[in-house]
TrEMBL record:
Name of the molecule in the record: Proteasome inhibitor PI31 subunit
Listed Gly residues bias regions: 338-368
Stated family: Belongs to the proteasome inhibitor PI31 family.
Compositionally biased tracts (Pro residues): 213-227, 234-250
Organism annotation: Apiospora aurea
Region entry Disordered, spans: 188-368
Amino acid sequence: MSTNPLSPSVLLQGMADALPTHPQGDTTSDLSSSHDALALFAHACMASLGFRLMGFDESKNDEAKCRDLAPRLPENWNASFNNCSFVYAHSQSALRFVLKVDRMGGKAEIRGLAIDDDRIARVEVTSKDFISNGALPVRIALTAESTEDRSDLPQKLQAVFINEARITDLASLIKINIIQKLLPSLQKEGYEESPDDRAAREDAEGAGRRPPRQPAMPDPMPQPAQPNPYGGPVDPPPRRPVPAGDFPPPDFEDELEVNRPPRGFPPGASPFGNLGADDLNPPGLGPNDPFRPSLGGLPRPGGHRGMHPTFEDIGGGGIGGDPYDPQAPPGARFDPLGPGGMPRLGGRRPGGGNNPYGGFGGFGGDII
């Protein structure tokens, strides 16, 4: 069974092999900060997957020196404070790759770039989530003959990390966010890409080709308060829409003011006043005076008298006279029908008496 090149044991051994050779008489530490530990770990991931170190500056090629020292790193690999840079090549690609580890406060950003591709892959990690500062600095042991003893170096480097699970998590972050984006479909025994992240990358590329969505605009008008959103018995009935017909009114601008009530009138008022309000009422029984003591008495207040002239207008009740028949006796009713049932313009017939609705006694009383 093949070994996973990004397993914790393989990466810890790669970190131990990459630490520079301890110079004779040098008393400084070999790994002193959490930032250097993260940078060394990222380099071990790249080297374990077949990336070949070309130098530390993309404008300068130090491949010959790096090849002679491999798998060791040169002494100046972490010369820049809070910034480490590596330049790689790979047999499965014609591109060169740049890996940078920058420290920003308590966090570190790992960035990868394929030169001439202009797509930056990055991942941000919090140092204290992975590195145990209590295990730093790390020093390579020396024998009595002042030679290096690296046998216990993987154990010392393992103590730099919080636990083995954290090593696996950090390797997975670098794999998913850096390596799979710099060199997709990389072929290495024991190495497998994450299918979930490959599908996510394809979805992200497809989303980049789609036009952006227009953000929903908020309603500028505040919503009215609704104490009873489900309605109640005192709520007004819903307004019925006006039938559109053949010529529907405009929807946006009512230029002809079709849907606007007449100006100068309160809501619900008619612009024609009370015209025609009592045209169909019986004579003398308008809506304003249904309980008058006598229909032939004094004239009632108001203007309109219904569909027939009343007694006050034509001398009913002994007041005034008949303008159509001046010789009719006082109190006679107006008869619109003449002899033989023919309509006439005026006149009264005797026999009506004081009965406002006409009489049957006498001569030709009106029957209404």
